[in-house]
Structures are given as C-alpha cells and as structure tokens.
C-alpha cells in the first residue's frame, strides 16, 4: 500500500476489514484476530494506531522485531489450518507502523490453538457457535456441500423412480433396463440416496413431495402494480410455487411470460408475438437461482415483476472470492456440484459458465447485485419502457 492510501484507510476508522492495534500483546491474541478475518472476507490489522483515537503511535525497531515474531508464531503454530500472512512496514510522518494483511481463507473454518472458531462482527469479532453458521463456513471452504446432505425425514419411497428413469434415458440415450443397472444402486452412486435417505439433490430433482421435507425451497412470484416492493397492490401473484426443481422452473417461467409485454411481429392476427425481453434471459437467471443458491439458508427464491424492472432474488452471496465482475467473464465456482452435474440434463442449462455472457449479448439491460452483508444475490432486468407510463398515457387518451 502507498502512504496516501494507508493514511486514507486510517482516517476512515475500523470496520469489518480494518482493525487498529496500538501494540500486540501476544501471539495468541493476534491469532484470534487473524482467524476472524480469514473466516470472513480477509482484512488488514494496522499496528501502531490507537484504536480509540486513530492517532499514530509508531513502533521502535525492537518492537517491529518482536511483533514480527508474534505474527510468525501465530501463523505457524496458533492457527489451524495454517495461514500465510503478508507484513509491511510503512513510515508516516517519521513514525513506523506495521500492516498485517490477512487473506480470505480458502480452507474455512479456521480455528485458534484452542479450537475456537472466530469471525468478524463489524469492527469486532465473535465466536461461531451455531451449526448453521459452521455449515456455511465448511461450505465456503469446500469441505461441505449442501446438495449432498442427507434429508433424514425422507426414505427411498420418496424417490420418484419414473422421473429418474427418464433422466437416465435422456443422459445415456438408453433405458435403465438396457443399461442393466439397478435403479437404487445407480441413485446411490449418483449421490441421490445415502443410507436409505434422499440427499438434498435427490429430493430437489426426484422427490415426490419436495416441500413436505423442505417447505422453504420454493419460488414466490409477484407482479406489482407499481415500482415499490413494499406495495400491497399487485397484478398477479403466486405465493408458493412448489414441486421438484423442473416443475418449479416451468411454473415460474409461465408466471413471468404471462406478466411481461408481448408485441405483434407480423401483419397476421395469428402471427407469433415477440416478448419484450427474450425468454432465454429468464431461463438462464431462473436456473442459476435454483442451482447456485445457498441451500444452507432456509429461504425462498423471489421473482418480483415491476412496471420498470424484473428482479430475481436468490438466497446467498456469491461463493468464496467470486465477484460480479468475475461471473460476467465466465468464471464460476460450483456451490452445489452434484446438483449442477445432474440438473443440466433436466433444465435448460449447460454448466459451462458462459450463460451470463450469452444473455448479456441478448439483452444489455441486466444488472447484478451481490449483497454480502445480507447474503442475497439479485439479478435486475430493466424494462425498456415503463408500464406505469403506458397505462397513464392510455387513460389520458
């Protein structure tokens, strides 16, 4: 970092990615801070700054040596698994401060030497105690996948073998009998069944009564009469679209198509209409919301249709280090790899990571918001005309 950049960073104060320390007390205390940063989004510890005032109280040469020893000991001996920390000394107004740059960990969850898991909480830190939060850290570290989790309330009788047979025939272009496979064994090998129970993938794709076991894994669709999501005025509403993933996708697509504008393309009354936004845009975004959402979060996918825009809201921020800029260049990190590998044969989805590039070429009025704080990812499709304005114009005439 340059001096001006560091000065600006200090002036802004502490937050979830920056922490001030006048001095380090010992290697154990600094290891807890490192763990907390590594388990969230990474960050910087600035040593030589009074945390209450932001005033600089620079380090002596001896203190720099001592603090480097603390950092090395913490990174090598007090953090599990080990972290690689970058250190930097910078002179500001003749005083030396030290910067510890902690990357976001790729092998979460990280723990201190006492096996305690810490995570940043605004400018402070806190212990991780809930199973749900621990599961999501394991997921972020690719040590746990929601789509492979056993749904203990299910049994093999909840598995729709007829749907599964159709999938096998489509994938392999042969029936199960022609392949001479045992259906149950094949489902187990595909991580759809474990220990006589369905996995989440098995339930979502081939379950007979998906929402009995996972009632929040649905889509809520609302077409609003105005542009405010808090409005109670709506034109059309499907509060809970249920079924397996293919059924949920099809019903949601039908809702969208019936609530967007269509224009005549030919002179004949029977000519096929053209949609204001290509159907492929919604297919890609809906499939992404269903396959890539965070299934450790018990919440629904939402489709909100407004006069000036359409929003598809998915539970979960982008996984790991992915950013909006990354995904728009085709970079992807599978959050639900088993679900993704099978769903591509049931839904209009390639799994190549090029879908967003393709739909941006089809329609260039799409924005994406990755809300890290609230763990929500939203696709916003702007409509090229405002239906409120059209309605007002018709009334005036």
Please explain how this structure is put together.
The chain has 397 residues and is of the alpha+beta class. The chain has three domains: 3-140, 2-Layer Sandwich (Methyltransferase, Cobalt-precorrin-4 Transmethylase, Domain 2), CATH 3.30.950; 146-213, no CATH class; 219-396, Heat Shock Protein 90. The chain has 15 helices and 19 strands. It has a six-stranded mixed sheet with strand order 13-12-16-17-19-18, covered by helices on one side. Strand 4 and strand 5 (95-102) form a beta hairpin. The chain is globular. The relative contact order is 0.09. Mean pLDDT is 89; it is low at 387-397.
Count of individual beta strands = 19
Share of residues in strands: 15-25%
Write out the strand line-up for the largest beta sheet, numbering strands in chain order: 13-12-16-17-19-18
> Alpha-carbon distance between the termini?
62 Å
Low-confidence stretches are: 387-397
CATH architecture label name of the largest domain? 2-Layer Sandwich
Provide the CATH top-level class of the largest domain.
Alpha Beta
Task: List the quaternary state of the chains.
Answer: single chain
Coarse shape: globular
Q: In total, how many domains does the architecture comprise?
A: 3
Total of helices: 15
Rg, alpha carbons: 26 Å
Helical fraction equals 25-40%
Reported by name, the CATH topology of the largest domain is Heat Shock Protein 90
Mean pLDDT: 89
Give the helix/strand class: alpha+beta
* Major sheet size, sense and barrel closure: 6 strands, mixed
Keywords:
single chain, 397 residues, Methyltransferase, Cobalt-precorrin-4 Transmethylase, Domain 2, 3 domains, 6-stranded mixed beta sheet
